[in-house]
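Collaborator request, handled under Task 6.
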Amino acid sequence: MKEKYNRTYDADENIAINFISLGITFIAALFIGLATSSITCGYITAILVFSGITALNAIKSEFEAQKTCVTFRYLIKETTIRYKDITNMKLERKNQEYQSRSGLSRGYIETLTITANGEDHVYSTAMDIDYDKVAEDPASLQEQFDNSKFSRLKRYIEDNMGIISRS
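Structure tokens returned to the collaborator:
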């Protein structure tokens, strides 16, 4: 089972990432502008650095579940968790609301927490909810929850953990 997903951060983490990105952009533009004695080079550097950071946020993460382990990948970081090391798995969904220029925006954030070898591995993604379908049939929201990427991954891991424990 192999899936790609968009990493999502909590509001506090998102604010911190944006401020750090803005700081890096400002510092890089300042140094390049001073080094070249050209304000245009500083502006171009700021645009390039900010575009690069924005592009990094758009890169999708992925997970690949096999018979004995699951591997999560993001950029160059790869985390492999063996099923036999997992002591706990928790799947949480949170309805996140935030104000945007176009008004109030809503979305569900799904967080999978895997505890293995005393360490928590936390992965979050924004869920793709078909709100038109939910408006027609409110019970379809639970069906969409049950068929989400992390729900299917959790079931897959639980099924394979049962096979390992019986071996």
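The cover message to the collaborator said: "The chain has a mean pLDDT of 82. DSSP finds five helices and seven strands in the chain. Please let us know whether this matches your experimental observations."
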